Task: structure prediction
Amino acid sequence: METIFAVSSGAPPAAIAVLRISGPDAFSATQALAGTLPPARVATLRKLRAADGGILDHALLLVFPGPASATGEDVTEIHLHGGRAVVAAVEHALDGMEGLRRAEPGEFTRRALMAGRIDLTEAEGLGDLLTAETETQRRAAMTAAEGGVRRRVATWSARLLGLAARAEAQLDFSDEDDVAPEEATDITAAARALADDIAVVVAAPPIERLRDGIRVVLAGPPNSGKSTLINALADRDVAIVSPIAGTTRDRIEVPVSHGGIAYVLTDTAGLAGQTSDPIEAIGIERAEAAIAMADIILWLGDEAPAVVNSLWIHARADRLGRESLPEGRALAVSAATGTGIVELWQQIEARTTSLLPRLDDVVLNRRQRSLAAECGALLTEASRASDMLIVAEHFRLALASLDRITGHSDTEAMLDTLFGQFCIGK
Result:
Protein backbone atom coordinates (compact mmCIF):
# COMPACT_ATOMS: atom_id res chain seq x y z
CA MET A 1 0.00 0.00 0.00
CA GLU A 2 1.25 3.49 -0.85
CA THR A 3 2.21 6.01 1.80
CA ILE A 4 0.03 9.13 1.77
CA PHE A 5 0.42 12.63 3.20
CA ALA A 6 -1.72 15.74 3.56
CA VAL A 7 -2.29 18.75 5.78
CA SER A 8 -5.11 17.79 8.14
CA SER A 9 -5.57 21.09 9.98
CA GLY A 10 -7.15 23.15 7.23
CA ALA A 11 -5.80 25.36 4.49
CA PRO A 12 -2.97 27.75 5.35
CA PRO A 13 -2.19 30.42 6.39
CA ALA A 14 -2.58 29.59 10.06
CA ALA A 15 -0.47 29.63 13.21
CA ILE A 16 0.16 25.88 12.96
CA ALA A 17 -0.29 23.40 10.11
CA VAL A 18 -0.49 19.72 11.02
CA LEU A 19 0.79 17.49 8.23
CA ARG A 20 0.05 13.76 8.50
CA ILE A 21 1.91 10.91 6.83
CA SER A 22 0.49 7.38 6.91
CA GLY A 23 1.71 4.12 5.41
CA PRO A 24 4.66 1.71 5.30
CA ASP A 25 7.18 4.44 4.38
CA ALA A 26 5.91 7.05 6.86
CA PHE A 27 8.83 6.66 9.26
CA SER A 28 11.54 6.56 6.58
CA ALA A 29 10.08 9.63 4.88
CA THR A 30 10.00 11.48 8.19
CA GLN A 31 13.58 10.46 8.91
CA ALA A 32 14.61 11.89 5.57
CA LEU A 33 13.16 15.22 6.65
CA ALA A 34 14.00 15.29 10.36
CA GLY A 35 16.74 12.77 11.06
CA THR A 36 16.36 10.51 14.10
CA LEU A 37 12.76 9.84 15.09
CA PRO A 38 11.64 10.63 18.66
CA PRO A 39 10.07 8.00 20.96
CA ALA A 40 6.48 7.05 20.13
CA ARG A 41 3.90 9.67 21.13
CA VAL A 42 6.48 12.13 22.50
CA ALA A 43 6.37 15.57 20.88
CA THR A 44 9.91 16.61 19.95
CA LEU A 45 11.30 19.69 18.21
CA ARG A 46 13.20 18.91 15.00
CA LYS A 47 14.77 20.80 12.10
CA LEU A 48 13.24 19.76 8.79
CA ARG A 49 15.65 19.73 5.87
CA ALA A 50 15.18 19.45 2.12
CA ALA A 51 17.09 16.95 0.00
CA ASP A 52 19.84 19.54 -0.59
CA GLY A 53 20.26 20.10 3.16
CA GLY A 54 18.49 23.44 3.30
CA ILE A 55 16.33 24.07 6.37
CA LEU A 56 12.61 23.98 5.64
CA ASP A 57 11.23 24.68 9.12
CA HIS A 58 11.56 24.05 12.84
CA ALA A 59 8.65 21.73 13.67
CA LEU A 60 7.21 19.51 16.37
CA LEU A 61 7.28 15.84 15.43
CA LEU A 62 5.11 12.98 16.72
CA VAL A 63 5.26 9.32 15.64
CA PHE A 64 2.56 6.69 16.10
CA PRO A 65 3.61 3.11 15.28
CA GLY A 66 0.89 0.92 13.80
CA PRO A 67 -1.40 -0.78 14.43
CA ALA A 68 -2.09 1.45 17.47
CA SER A 69 -2.59 4.56 15.35
CA ALA A 70 -5.47 6.45 13.79
CA THR A 71 -5.20 4.54 10.50
CA GLY A 72 -3.76 1.28 11.84
CA GLU A 73 -0.54 2.05 9.92
CA ASP A 74 2.65 3.82 10.90
CA VAL A 75 1.69 7.49 11.19
CA THR A 76 3.67 10.66 11.76
CA GLU A 77 2.42 14.15 12.48
CA ILE A 78 4.55 17.18 11.66
CA HIS A 79 3.40 20.40 13.32
CA LEU A 80 4.69 23.13 11.02
CA HIS A 81 4.51 26.89 11.06
CA GLY A 82 1.33 27.48 9.10
CA GLY A 83 2.50 29.83 6.36
CA ARG A 84 1.68 28.87 2.79
CA ALA A 85 5.32 28.85 1.69
CA VAL A 86 6.42 26.65 4.60
CA VAL A 87 3.67 24.10 3.98
CA ALA A 88 4.29 24.10 0.22
CA ALA A 89 8.01 23.55 0.73
CA VAL A 90 7.52 20.53 3.01
CA GLU A 91 4.87 19.06 0.71
CA HIS A 92 7.22 19.52 -2.24
CA ALA A 93 9.96 17.63 -0.35
CA LEU A 94 7.56 14.76 0.34
CA ASP A 95 6.34 14.78 -3.27
CA GLY A 96 9.88 14.05 -4.38
CA MET A 97 10.19 10.88 -2.29
CA GLU A 98 9.58 7.52 -3.90
CA GLY A 99 6.48 5.68 -2.70
CA LEU A 100 4.70 8.79 -1.34
CA ARG A 101 1.73 10.59 -2.81
CA ARG A 102 -0.81 13.17 -1.72
CA ALA A 103 -3.89 11.77 0.01
CA GLU A 104 -7.30 11.76 -1.59
CA PRO A 105 -10.37 13.16 0.23
CA GLY A 106 -11.21 11.03 3.27
CA GLU A 107 -8.37 8.59 2.62
CA PHE A 108 -7.00 8.64 6.17
CA THR A 109 -10.43 7.80 7.60
CA ARG A 110 -10.98 5.19 4.91
CA ARG A 111 -7.75 3.46 5.91
CA ALA A 112 -8.89 3.56 9.54
CA LEU A 113 -12.09 1.81 8.46
CA MET A 114 -10.27 -0.82 6.42
CA ALA A 115 -7.90 -1.50 9.34
CA GLY A 116 -10.82 -1.96 11.74
CA ARG A 117 -9.95 1.08 13.83
CA ILE A 118 -13.47 2.42 13.26
CA ASP A 119 -16.59 1.09 11.57
CA LEU A 120 -18.75 2.67 8.89
CA THR A 121 -21.15 4.32 11.35
CA GLU A 122 -18.24 6.02 13.12
CA ALA A 123 -16.85 7.18 9.77
CA GLU A 124 -20.24 8.68 8.89
CA GLY A 125 -20.30 10.37 12.29
CA LEU A 126 -16.88 11.90 11.59
CA GLY A 127 -18.16 13.17 8.26
CA ASP A 128 -21.16 14.79 9.96
CA LEU A 129 -18.87 16.25 12.63
CA LEU A 130 -16.76 17.96 9.97
CA THR A 131 -19.83 19.69 8.51
CA ALA A 132 -21.66 20.42 11.80
CA GLU A 133 -22.75 24.05 12.07
CA THR A 134 -25.07 23.94 15.09
CA GLU A 135 -24.78 22.52 18.60
CA THR A 136 -27.40 19.84 17.96
CA GLN A 137 -25.60 18.74 14.79
CA ARG A 138 -22.33 18.54 16.70
CA ARG A 139 -23.79 16.48 19.55
CA ALA A 140 -25.51 13.98 17.26
CA ALA A 141 -22.39 13.62 15.11
CA MET A 142 -20.20 13.13 18.18
CA THR A 143 -22.47 10.32 19.42
CA ALA A 144 -22.09 8.50 16.09
CA ALA A 145 -18.36 9.21 15.83
CA GLU A 146 -17.81 7.76 19.31
CA GLY A 147 -19.57 4.52 18.38
CA GLY A 148 -23.14 5.07 19.62
CA VAL A 149 -24.74 3.57 16.51
CA ARG A 150 -22.16 0.77 16.37
CA ARG A 151 -22.91 -0.27 19.96
CA ARG A 152 -26.67 -0.35 19.33
CA VAL A 153 -26.22 -2.41 16.16
CA ALA A 154 -23.83 -4.72 18.01
CA THR A 155 -26.53 -5.34 20.63
CA TRP A 156 -29.05 -6.19 17.91
CA SER A 157 -26.52 -8.44 16.19
CA ALA A 158 -25.74 -10.33 19.39
CA ARG A 159 -29.44 -11.00 20.00
CA LEU A 160 -29.94 -12.05 16.40
CA LEU A 161 -26.92 -14.35 16.44
CA GLY A 162 -28.36 -16.03 19.51
CA LEU A 163 -31.68 -16.54 17.73
CA ALA A 164 -29.91 -17.88 14.64
CA ALA A 165 -27.99 -20.40 16.75
CA ARG A 166 -31.21 -21.58 18.37
CA ALA A 167 -32.86 -21.91 14.95
CA GLU A 168 -29.95 -23.98 13.67
CA ALA A 169 -30.22 -26.19 16.76
CA GLN A 170 -33.87 -26.79 15.94
CA LEU A 171 -32.94 -27.80 12.41
CA ASP A 172 -30.01 -30.03 13.35
CA PHE A 173 -31.13 -31.58 16.62
CA SER A 174 -34.92 -31.43 16.59
CA ASP A 175 -35.04 -35.18 17.32
CA GLU A 176 -32.81 -34.91 20.39
CA ASP A 177 -34.19 -34.89 23.91
CA ASP A 178 -32.38 -31.67 24.91
CA VAL A 179 -34.28 -29.52 22.36
CA ALA A 180 -37.67 -28.58 23.81
CA PRO A 181 -40.67 -28.72 21.43
CA GLU A 182 -41.78 -25.21 22.47
CA GLU A 183 -38.41 -23.77 21.44
CA ALA A 184 -39.65 -22.82 17.95
CA THR A 185 -42.41 -20.66 19.43
CA ASP A 186 -39.93 -18.98 21.78
CA ILE A 187 -37.61 -18.21 18.85
CA THR A 188 -40.31 -16.55 16.75
CA ALA A 189 -41.56 -14.57 19.77
CA ALA A 190 -38.01 -13.33 20.44
CA ALA A 191 -37.66 -12.40 16.76
CA ARG A 192 -40.85 -10.36 16.99
CA ALA A 193 -39.59 -8.60 20.12
CA LEU A 194 -36.30 -7.70 18.42
CA ALA A 195 -38.17 -6.41 15.37
CA ASP A 196 -40.25 -4.19 17.67
CA ASP A 197 -37.13 -2.79 19.36
CA ILE A 198 -35.58 -1.97 15.99
CA ALA A 199 -38.84 -0.39 14.80
CA VAL A 200 -38.76 2.08 17.71
CA VAL A 201 -35.34 3.37 16.62
CA VAL A 202 -36.32 3.43 12.93
CA ALA A 203 -39.48 5.42 13.70
CA ALA A 204 -37.59 8.14 15.60
CA PRO A 205 -37.02 11.45 13.78
CA PRO A 206 -34.06 11.09 11.40
CA ILE A 207 -30.70 12.77 11.84
CA GLU A 208 -31.19 14.56 8.51
CA ARG A 209 -33.58 16.97 10.26
CA LEU A 210 -30.66 18.22 12.33
CA ARG A 211 -28.52 18.75 9.24
CA ASP A 212 -31.11 20.04 6.76
CA GLY A 213 -32.99 22.19 9.27
CA ILE A 214 -36.61 22.52 10.36
CA ARG A 215 -38.61 24.09 7.53
CA VAL A 216 -40.64 27.06 8.83
CA VAL A 217 -42.91 28.56 6.16
CA LEU A 218 -44.54 31.99 6.49
CA ALA A 219 -47.84 31.96 4.64
CA GLY A 220 -50.87 34.18 4.24
CA PRO A 221 -52.60 36.59 1.85
CA PRO A 222 -50.75 39.40 0.06
CA ASN A 223 -49.47 42.27 2.22
CA SER A 224 -49.98 40.40 5.51
CA GLY A 225 -46.48 41.14 6.84
CA LYS A 226 -44.66 37.93 5.89
CA SER A 227 -41.54 39.59 4.50
CA THR A 228 -41.25 41.98 7.44
CA LEU A 229 -41.59 39.09 9.87
CA ILE A 230 -39.01 36.87 8.15
CA ASN A 231 -36.53 39.76 8.34
CA ALA A 232 -37.20 40.02 12.07
CA LEU A 233 -36.85 36.26 12.64
CA ALA A 234 -33.64 36.12 10.60
CA ASP A 235 -32.38 39.30 12.30
CA ARG A 236 -31.27 40.69 8.93
CA ASP A 237 -32.85 42.00 5.73
CA VAL A 238 -33.44 39.00 3.50
CA ALA A 239 -36.70 39.99 1.80
CA ILE A 240 -37.85 43.19 0.13
CA VAL A 241 -40.52 44.97 2.17
CA SER A 242 -42.97 47.47 0.66
CA PRO A 243 -46.60 48.52 1.19
CA ILE A 244 -47.40 47.28 -2.32
CA ALA A 245 -49.34 44.02 -2.23
CA GLY A 246 -47.66 41.17 -4.08
CA THR A 247 -44.09 42.44 -3.66
CA THR A 248 -42.90 38.88 -2.97
CA ARG A 249 -43.40 36.92 -6.19
CA ASP A 250 -41.24 33.89 -5.43
CA ARG A 251 -40.37 32.01 -2.26
CA ILE A 252 -37.24 33.11 -0.38
CA GLU A 253 -35.39 30.58 1.77
CA VAL A 254 -33.12 31.69 4.61
CA PRO A 255 -30.99 29.30 6.71
CA VAL A 256 -31.00 30.37 10.37
CA SER A 257 -29.48 28.90 13.52
CA HIS A 258 -31.43 29.62 16.69
CA GLY A 259 -30.92 28.00 20.08
CA GLY A 260 -28.41 25.55 18.59
CA ILE A 261 -30.96 24.27 16.04
CA ALA A 262 -30.89 24.75 12.26
CA TYR A 263 -33.97 26.21 10.59
CA VAL A 264 -34.87 27.14 7.03
CA LEU A 265 -37.27 30.10 7.04
CA THR A 266 -39.31 30.48 3.85
CA ASP A 267 -41.10 33.63 2.76
CA THR A 268 -43.82 32.94 0.21
CA ALA A 269 -45.95 34.83 -2.27
CA GLY A 270 -49.34 35.98 -0.99
CA LEU A 271 -52.09 33.43 -1.44
CA ALA A 272 -54.57 35.47 -3.50
CA GLY A 273 -57.93 33.91 -4.29
CA GLN A 274 -57.91 34.63 -8.00
CA THR A 275 -55.27 36.23 -10.23
CA SER A 276 -54.89 36.97 -13.92
CA ASP A 277 -51.16 37.62 -13.54
CA PRO A 278 -49.29 34.50 -14.76
CA ILE A 279 -46.17 35.39 -12.69
CA GLU A 280 -48.25 35.78 -9.55
CA ALA A 281 -49.94 32.45 -10.30
CA ILE A 282 -46.55 30.73 -10.43
CA GLY A 283 -45.63 32.36 -7.12
CA ILE A 284 -48.82 31.05 -5.54
CA GLU A 285 -48.11 27.54 -6.85
CA ARG A 286 -44.63 27.66 -5.31
CA ALA A 287 -46.05 28.98 -2.06
CA GLU A 288 -48.49 26.06 -1.92
CA ALA A 289 -45.63 23.63 -2.63
CA ALA A 290 -43.59 25.15 0.21
CA ILE A 291 -46.54 24.83 2.56
CA ALA A 292 -46.95 21.18 1.62
CA MET A 293 -43.29 20.48 2.54
CA ALA A 294 -43.27 22.61 5.71
CA ASP A 295 -42.57 21.28 9.17
CA ILE A 296 -44.06 24.38 10.82
CA ILE A 297 -46.40 26.91 9.18
CA LEU A 298 -46.79 30.46 10.46
CA TRP A 299 -50.13 31.76 9.17
CA LEU A 300 -50.37 35.57 9.06
CA GLY A 301 -53.82 36.01 7.52
CA ASP A 302 -56.76 37.57 9.32
CA GLU A 303 -58.98 34.74 8.14
CA ALA A 304 -58.63 31.34 9.83
CA PRO A 305 -55.83 29.27 8.29
CA ALA A 306 -56.81 26.67 5.73
CA VAL A 307 -53.82 24.52 6.69
CA VAL A 308 -54.26 22.24 9.70
CA ASN A 309 -51.91 22.75 12.67
CA SER A 310 -50.74 26.16 11.51
CA LEU A 311 -49.45 28.58 14.12
CA TRP A 312 -51.88 31.47 13.66
CA ILE A 313 -50.04 34.76 14.16
CA HIS A 314 -51.63 38.19 14.68
CA ALA A 315 -49.07 40.17 12.71
CA ARG A 316 -48.53 43.95 12.50
CA ALA A 317 -49.77 44.34 16.06
CA ASP A 318 -48.30 47.87 16.22
CA ARG A 319 -50.74 49.14 13.57
CA LEU A 320 -53.73 51.25 14.56
CA GLY A 321 -56.75 49.06 15.22
CA ARG A 322 -54.66 45.88 15.61
CA GLU A 323 -53.51 46.38 19.19
CA SER A 324 -55.63 43.63 20.77
CA LEU A 325 -55.19 39.90 20.15
CA PRO A 326 -58.21 38.43 18.33
CA GLU A 327 -59.67 35.16 19.53
CA GLY A 328 -58.13 31.98 18.13
CA ARG A 329 -54.67 33.37 17.39
CA ALA A 330 -51.55 32.13 19.11
CA LEU A 331 -49.89 35.48 19.78
CA ALA A 332 -49.53 39.04 18.62
CA VAL A 333 -46.34 40.04 16.85
CA SER A 334 -44.92 43.31 15.62
CA ALA A 335 -41.83 42.90 13.50
CA ALA A 336 -41.43 46.68 13.44
CA THR A 337 -41.18 47.06 17.24
CA GLY A 338 -39.95 43.55 18.09
CA THR A 339 -43.01 42.78 20.21
CA GLY A 340 -43.68 39.05 20.39
CA ILE A 341 -40.59 37.93 18.41
CA VAL A 342 -39.02 36.20 21.44
CA GLU A 343 -42.34 34.52 22.27
CA LEU A 344 -42.76 33.44 18.63
CA TRP A 345 -39.35 31.75 18.66
CA GLN A 346 -40.37 30.01 21.90
CA GLN A 347 -43.51 28.64 20.23
CA ILE A 348 -41.51 27.54 17.18
CA GLU A 349 -39.00 25.77 19.45
CA ALA A 350 -41.84 24.06 21.37
CA ARG A 351 -43.14 22.58 18.11
CA THR A 352 -39.61 21.71 17.02
CA THR A 353 -39.09 19.41 20.01
CA SER A 354 -41.30 16.67 18.56
CA LEU A 355 -39.68 16.94 15.13
CA LEU A 356 -36.08 16.41 16.20
CA PRO A 357 -34.40 13.21 17.40
CA ARG A 358 -33.44 12.87 21.05
CA LEU A 359 -29.75 13.63 21.38
CA ASP A 360 -29.38 11.29 24.35
CA ASP A 361 -30.32 8.31 22.17
CA VAL A 362 -29.02 6.70 19.00
CA VAL A 363 -30.05 8.52 15.82
CA LEU A 364 -29.83 6.83 12.42
CA ASN A 365 -29.14 8.47 9.09
CA ARG A 366 -31.09 7.62 5.95
CA ARG A 367 -28.82 4.75 4.89
CA GLN A 368 -28.69 3.21 8.36
CA ARG A 369 -32.43 3.61 8.85
CA SER A 370 -33.19 1.86 5.55
CA LEU A 371 -31.02 -1.13 6.46
CA ALA A 372 -32.38 -1.32 10.00
CA ALA A 373 -35.93 -1.26 8.62
CA GLU A 374 -34.97 -4.04 6.19
CA CYS A 375 -33.64 -6.09 9.10
CA GLY A 376 -36.82 -5.47 11.10
CA ALA A 377 -39.01 -6.54 8.19
CA LEU A 378 -37.05 -9.78 7.81
CA LEU A 379 -37.40 -10.48 11.53
CA THR A 380 -41.14 -9.87 11.29
CA GLU A 381 -41.37 -12.33 8.42
CA ALA A 382 -39.35 -14.84 10.45
CA SER A 383 -41.72 -14.46 13.40
CA ARG A 384 -44.65 -15.42 11.14
CA ALA A 385 -43.01 -18.44 9.49
CA SER A 386 -43.81 -21.97 10.62
CA ASP A 387 -40.94 -23.66 8.79
CA MET A 388 -37.73 -23.31 10.83
CA LEU A 389 -35.68 -23.50 7.62
CA ILE A 390 -37.38 -20.31 6.40
CA VAL A 391 -36.91 -18.73 9.83
CA ALA A 392 -33.17 -19.47 9.73
CA GLU A 393 -32.84 -18.01 6.23
CA HIS A 394 -34.61 -14.80 7.30
CA PHE A 395 -32.20 -14.57 10.24
CA ARG A 396 -29.23 -14.89 7.89
CA LEU A 397 -30.51 -12.10 5.65
CA ALA A 398 -31.32 -9.91 8.66
CA LEU A 399 -27.76 -10.32 9.97
CA ALA A 400 -26.43 -9.29 6.56
CA SER A 401 -28.50 -6.09 6.78
CA LEU A 402 -26.97 -5.26 10.17
CA ASP A 403 -23.48 -6.00 8.84
CA ARG A 404 -24.07 -3.50 6.04
CA ILE A 405 -24.91 -0.79 8.59
CA THR A 406 -21.47 -1.09 10.17
CA GLY A 407 -19.70 -1.66 6.84
CA HIS A 408 -18.68 -5.27 7.40
CA SER A 409 -20.14 -6.21 4.05
CA ASP A 410 -20.60 -3.21 1.80
CA THR A 411 -19.52 -2.15 -1.66
CA GLU A 412 -16.54 -0.14 -2.79
CA ALA A 413 -18.84 2.21 -4.72
CA MET A 414 -20.68 3.19 -1.52
CA LEU A 415 -17.38 3.78 0.28
CA ASP A 416 -16.12 5.91 -2.61
CA THR A 417 -19.24 8.08 -2.33
CA LEU A 418 -18.94 8.45 1.43
CA PHE A 419 -15.26 9.31 1.66
CA GLY A 420 -15.34 11.49 -1.43
CA GLN A 421 -17.31 14.00 0.69
CA PHE A 422 -14.51 14.27 3.27
CA CYS A 423 -11.85 16.97 3.18
CA ILE A 424 -8.25 16.32 2.17
CA GLY A 425 -6.22 15.18 5.17
CA LYS A 426 -9.10 13.51 7.02
Summary: The longest strand covers residues 55-64.
